[in-house]
Amino acid sequence: MSTTVAESVTLWERVRTYSPPSRFLPVIVTFAVFLGMFGVGGVRYEGFAHPQVFLHVLHDNAFLIVLAVGLTFVILTGGIDLSVGSVVAMSTVIAAKTLELGWPPALAMLTVLIAGTLLGTIMGLLIHYLDIQPFIATLAGLFLARGITYLISVRSIPITDETFREIAYASIPLPGGHYTTWLVVVALSTVLIAAYVLARTRFGRTVYAIGGSESSAMLMGLRVALVKVGVYAISGFCAALGGLLFALYLLSGYSLHAVGMELEAIAAVVIGGTLLTGGRGYVVGSMIGVLVYGTIQTFINFDGTLSSWWTRIAIGVLLLVFVVIQRVATRGPR
Amino acid sequence: MTQTYQEPLVTSHHASAPVIEMLDISITFGNVHALDQVSLRLYPGEVHALMGENGAGKSTLIKALTGVYSIDAGTITVGGQRHEFHSPSAAQAAGISTVYQEINLVPNLTVAENMLLGREPRRFGGIHVREMNRRAQQTLRALGLDIDPASVLGEHPIAVQQLVAIARAVDVDARVLILDEPTSSLDGDEVEKLFDVLRRLRADGVAIVFVSHFLDQIYEIADRMTILRNGTLIEERMVADTPRLELVQLMIGRELEELDRLGRGSGSVPDPSRVPVLEVVGLSRKGALEATDLSLYDGEVVGVAGLLGSGRTELARLLFGADSADHGEIAIRSTRRRLRSPRHAIDRKLAFTSEDRKAEGIVGDLTVADNMLLALQASRGWLRPIPQSVRTRLVQQYMEALNIRPADPQALMRNLSGGNQQKVLLARWLITDPHVLILDEPTRGIDIGAKAQIQSLVAELASKGMSVVFISAELEEVLRLSHRMVVMRDRRKIAELSNDDVRVGDLLRIIATEATDVEQEGSSDD
After folding, report:
1. Domains of chain A and any CATH numbers
2. Distance CA B345, CA B437 (A)
3. Which of A208, A219, A280 shows the shortest C-beta gap to B104?
4. Which residue is closest to B125 within chain A, CA to CA?
5. Which residues on chain A place their C-beta less than 8 Å from a C-beta of chain B?
6. Cα dist from A219 to A77, A95, A212, A224, A327, whole Å
7. Is there a cis peptide before residue B107, judged by omega within 30 degrees of 0?
8. How many pairs of residues across A and B have Cβ atoms under 8 Å apart?
9. How many C-beta atoms lie closer than 10 Å to residue B400's C-beta?
């Protein structure tokens, strides 16, 4: 391919005339909102714009990022997974209980991850092969996982295991005197791996194809069954992983953990620009969605006079605004 | 019946053996013969048209070939070897690809992805995007298409999406490409583009099966054709040796002389001094109907004749506001109106029964009485219920007048026969006392007795002053009932004639004539 055209146009010219494809627009808008909030915070409150504040936001919401990543897979196919909050609670309790019983930490973690993935797989099988509405199937999963949690223990179990505590308290030094935690590393790794899978593998592209038109995907000879069950398994796995991070964050397992967290995760995914009808969206967007959520909380912490309920109000307004933006953006050119 | 086979038209091609030979294929659903010993031969490097009216068995034959239906009797030979496909993907693997009318692609992915989804080039375990775009570009170029492979499919018009669907099919290394009504939503230029692609593929030796209702297109692109009627093979013909009139006869299945003896109605010439109840000028909608003028007067039946896909249903839907027109004016009793929705049309005393009785007509789980009163209730608004006494009286009156069986207003609609359902739908609109009644295929699929009753009802309504638009695929029926007739072809009104001594044969001749000839015969609007 010739480069004559590229040579005659200066770099500045290209930057100036560059307009991002409309499919990136929602993510860009979300990112702008995120930057804007940090900017406003930096002006209003001393120390807000400090990088360590940002790293804290990441640390405090690491589990939510992982949850939102898994949920993004499901929502991209046009489905929904309501069970993730309960799976987080189940995971914390399984981890705490098995550790209490003296299991080695690695085995406890493995058990948690297998339990979550298994539950997700079962829901996926029901949804695909019995053609049950994802809403209903995962609602059943929500109750089931929460029920199992109560069955294992109704009281809060503290985690005293040395390995867990080490991981939870370890700080990883970063250049410039900043530090971060393993929770953040796990969360960001999950985002990177998921982004690669969605963008560059047949599995990932099939996820988008199913969201665009499931019957077309079927007629194109794609492996619809595998992928549809797969996304629920991935969501289950991510919920379990998120549960482990949550257990590390609070160092306890409790059946009342993470009540309603599935809704926070869904809100983050939608704010991140993913269409609930499927086929459009990026995990990076979901991560930024979580960060927006986290930043609002930080805002309120810094202010000190605002009630924490303002988080909910702000998220509600943002959600509404983003859904409207998406509606207008997707209806626009045609 | 002896089947006449002729040698393929395309002489430049070395291959004289058919790439596909379907012999004596039979398929039955229950005790209905969907296909009865039908044969089809496809040669490399030809465009083969599959012709026939609705229910002739075209799509059943295609589905038998592509493995959607399993065949009860007969053999399929692909490249000299016997084959029977049990799934579309098995057929695809053997080089038989199908492009359907509805585009089976994914709008949210790029053009290149849509072409190569499922067999993307890979590098280091991931999709090699640059290589994928390059390969897509290569295939598109080979087809003479200038489409950016990295652009999102949904941002392109339907026509381009259709071309991408073909490009995908071709990229699978298709030997046989089946196009099921690919042109039904394309306009003239877009069809030309599609035909360019088909010509290239033909030159490359691909066998193309082409299904279309547009005769002009068949004569432009197809080399040979197989004509089906009622699930049986009528003939395999060279397109060049088959005059249009003969083709239409073969599809409809009557000899002209026989048709000429059939029914004759009474004509009427619109009186220019009278005010038309409904008048449209230049009504059009992209992909549905080209600019059409039409005037309707009180007390006359205007028949709309034309083959499937000629634009007859589209005309009806535009008149009723079920689809919105791109251009054109509608005047009701010489007052200009905009019909934005069926609701407006109902308020202006228009009524319309759809050709799709099940999906767009009846509400199967409601009673006969409820079904009858739906339109009246809708036009009154839901806050003004119809008094029980009025309901009972109206329902009783129309059940008797139309002789609806069973004579039970509380029977569930879905349990009625097709003919009685149609009568209930008629009653639904008659109750609203319309001035214009648009009937789209009101007698399709109902028994002879009910058919006669509906026909006489139409005549009676017109004699009482109602204006009726009567659309039917059965020309005899149109002739018997209409005072005036509008002939449609290729989404255009090609003639309008008063029913004086018009015979079925005359209508057929008009439908089959070249577009240029019709201009001279002219229409008699005013």
Report:
1. 22-329 (1.10.3470)
2. 11
3. A219
4. A201
5. 21, 23, 196, 200-202, 205-206, 208-209, 211-213, 215-217, 219-222, 279-280, 333
6. 16, 43, 13, 10, 28
7. no
8. 60
9. 10
Q: Which amino acid is at B135?
A: R
Nearest CA in chain A to B153: A212
Start-to-end CA distance of chain A, whole Å, equals 31
Nearest to A240 by CA among A59, A85, A76: A85
E strands of B369-518, at which residues?
436-440, 467-471, 484-489, 492-498
> What integer pLDDT is reported at residue B264 of this predicted model?
45
Taking a C-beta distance cutoff of 8 angstroms, is the pair A242, B146 a contact?
no
Q: Show residues of chain B in contact with A201, CB under 8 Å.
A: 125-127
Handedness of CA B423, B429, B434, B440 (dihedral sign): negative
Nearest Cα residue to A211 out of B107, B127, B150: B107
Spell out the residues 6+ positions from residue B274 whose beta carbon is closer than 8 angstroms to its own. B297, B298
DSSP E strand boundaries for chain A? 157-158, 172-173, 179-180, 252-253
For residue B233, what is the DSSP state?
Answer: E
Residue from B136, B127, B189 nearest B164 by CA: B136
* Binary contact (A221, B113; C-beta < 8 A): no
Distance (Å, rounded) from C-alpha A94 to C-alpha A116? Answer: 10
Gap between the Cα atoms of B357 and B442, Å rounded: 9
Q: Is B451 helix (H, G, I), strand (E, B) or coil?
A: helix
Q: State whether residue B92 sits within 8 Å of chain A by CB.
A: yes
pLDDT tens for B152-182 read 998 888 888 888 988 888 887 788 999 988 8
Judge whether residue A253 has pLDDT over 90.
Answer: yes
Q: Is B129 on the interface with A (CB under 8 A)?
A: yes
d(CA A113, CA A117): 6
**Mutation to test the A interface, candidates B63, B106, B158, most A Cβ within 10 Å:** B106
* Coil vs helix vs strand at A86: helix
**pLDDT for B424-474, tens place per residue?**
998 999 898 899 999 998 887 676 667 778 888 888 888 888 999 999 877
**Which residues lie closer than 8 Å to A158 by C-beta, 6 or more apart?**
A96, A251, A252
Contact B23, B46 (CB under 8 A): no
ipTM: 0.80
Q: Which residues of B touch A216 (CB under 8 A)?
A: 103-106
Cβ atoms within 10 Å, residue B250: 19
Under 8 Å between Cβ of B135 and B167: no
Q: Which residue has the tokens 């209930």?
A: B424
Q: Which domains does chain B have, with CATH numbers?
A: 15-95+217-254 (3.40.50.300), 266-349+436-448+467-526 (3.40.50.300), 356-433 (no CATH)
Please list every residue in chain A whose beta carbon sits closer than 8 Å to the beta carbon of residue B168: 220
Nearest CA in chain A to B165: A220
Name the token pair of B181: 């009504």
Of B444, B474, B22, B67, residue with least CA distance to B233: B22
CB atoms A216 and B106 under 8 Å: yes
Query: What is the share, in percent, of chain A residues with pLDDT greater than 70?
Result: 93
Q: Which residue of B has its CA nearest to A209?
A: B106
Instruction: Label residue B329 by pLDDT band (50, 70, 90).
Output: confident
* Closest chain A residue to B129, measured at CA: A200
Tell me the per-residue pLDDT of B331-381, one tens digit each, with 9 for 90 and over: 888 888 887 888 888 888 889 988 888 788 888 888 989 999 888 888 888
* Chain B residues whose beta carbon lies within 8 Å of the beta carbon of residue A212: 106-109
Optimal mutation site among A77, A205, A224, interface B, most CBs of chain B within 10 A = A205
